[in-house]
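Saturday, quiet lab. Running sequence design on the structure tokens for the scaffold JK sent over.
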């Protein structure tokens, strides 16, 4: 019997045939911009988009020049649904600064999300350290930070998300993660954290109040743990029909999923699998939710015959419908969201890697998947790619 389900629920879900739902996607259009595939300019990375109340789109983005070596966090806007974007401008305070020990502290993995009750955008990232322009101190003295863009367009000073817990004495972070804003205005923030002296991390969620200026954690939920490698990383949240879902990156060749009635207390997690019981092989990479009023979708990377030589199988990007009752993916619904560019069998190093991506609904008819690609063999050349997913049925949640 599947974990987290009562016997009655399991029997009911097993008895009902899941209908193929690929037809819910009308089309997927591929676009790209800010291309640096020749390696002569700058490569923009971590493009993440949120939709404002006006319908305008806001993106945060930063440059990449080495392995986890990022520049100043910038922002850009689009007034035409993501067809054209303004020149990226730096967000004040989101660059590097000198700290003790000859280190520089910067920020990365920024995710902007609109907060309807206050009309603000919260851009949450985490701090990172460099020495001689190389990553330093990767797993200690790291925490979430955020800056707030007010209703009049000004960015606030950068603040640390203050949280004290014995399981987070070395680090805690919400980098790259999708959050959930509740009708009350409170925000559920997923956290990956680790204590001093322990390599593997756990995950939990923080219930935070927000007054338009400051995020304040009020309580946290149960902590989930997994001991392989660095443990559980980059959790992301979604909410649909009164149920909360969390998908989690791991380092054992799988990704994990769990759910909750209140967004704090989570069921025993399980590995992502197909609805026919087949395993889905992932390699320490992210997954992201696409929430639609007709159902929940997941965007992810996985092992495939086309990407056998691609690092961590980080291309193409797939998407599939989630069977919410059985907590699995519907194999018949799977589509390629962003295709693999290059030869993933004989020349994996020449393929554009798609491992750091984000998803967001931008209208009732369309959702967007954004990714900054990189080709390490070309000195971190890359481009920004968008997949525009058009739905056959309008999304009533927008």
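Result came back. Writing it out in full:
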């Amino acid at each position: 019997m599947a974990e987290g389900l009562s016997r009655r629920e399991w029997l009911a879900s097993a008895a009902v045939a899941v209908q193929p739902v690929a037809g819910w996607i009308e089309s997927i259009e591929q676009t790209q911009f800010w291309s640096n595939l020749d390696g002569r300019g700058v490569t923009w990375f971590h493009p993440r988009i949120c939709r404002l109340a006006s319908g305008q789109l806001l993106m945060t983005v930063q440059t990449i020049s080495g392995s986890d070596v990022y520049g100043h966090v910038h922002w850009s806007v689009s007034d035409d649904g993501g067809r054209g974007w303004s020149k990226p401008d730096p967000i004040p305070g989101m660059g590097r600064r000198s700290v003790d020990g000859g280190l520089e502290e910067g920020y990365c993995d920024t995710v902007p999300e609109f907060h309807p009750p206050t009309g603000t955008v919260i851009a949450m990232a985490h701090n990172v350290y460099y020495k001689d322009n190389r990553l330093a101190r990767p797993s200690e003295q790291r925490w979430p930070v955020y800056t707030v863009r007010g209703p009049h367009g000004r960015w606030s000073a950068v603040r640390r998300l203050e949280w004290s817990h014995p399981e987070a004495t070395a680090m805690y972070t919400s980098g790259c993660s999708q959050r959930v804003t509740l009708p009350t205005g409170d925000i559920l923030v997923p956290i990956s954290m680790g204590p001093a002296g322990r390599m593997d991390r756990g995950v939990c969620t923080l219930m935070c109040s927000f007054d338009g200026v400051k995020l304040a954690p009020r309580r946290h939920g149960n902590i989930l743990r997994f001991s392989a490698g660095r443990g559980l990383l980059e959790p992301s949240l979604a909410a649909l029909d009164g149920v909360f879902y969390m998908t989690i990156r791991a380092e054992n060749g799988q990704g994990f999923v769990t759910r909750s009635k209140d967004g704090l207390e989570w069921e025993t997690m399980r590995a992502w699998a197909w609805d026919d019981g087949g395993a889905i092989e992932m390699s320490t990479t992210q997954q992201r939710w696409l929430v639609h009023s007709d159902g929940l979708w997941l965007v992810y990377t996985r092992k495939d015959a086309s990407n056998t030589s691609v690092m961590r199988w980080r291309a193409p990007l797939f998407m599939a419908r989630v069977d919410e009752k059985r907590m699995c993916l519907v194999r018949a619904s799977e589509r390629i969201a962003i295709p693999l560019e290059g030869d993933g069998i004989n020349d994996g190093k020449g393929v554009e890697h798609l491992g750091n991506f984000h998803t967001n609904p931008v209208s009732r008819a369309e959702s967007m998947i954004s990714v900054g690609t990189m080709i390490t063999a070309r000195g971190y050349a890359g481009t920004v790619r968008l997949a525009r997913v058009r739905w056959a049925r309008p999304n009533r949640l927008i």
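Notes for JK: The first helix runs from residue 7 to 15. The two ends are 36 Å apart (CA to CA). Ask whether to fix the surface positions before the next round.
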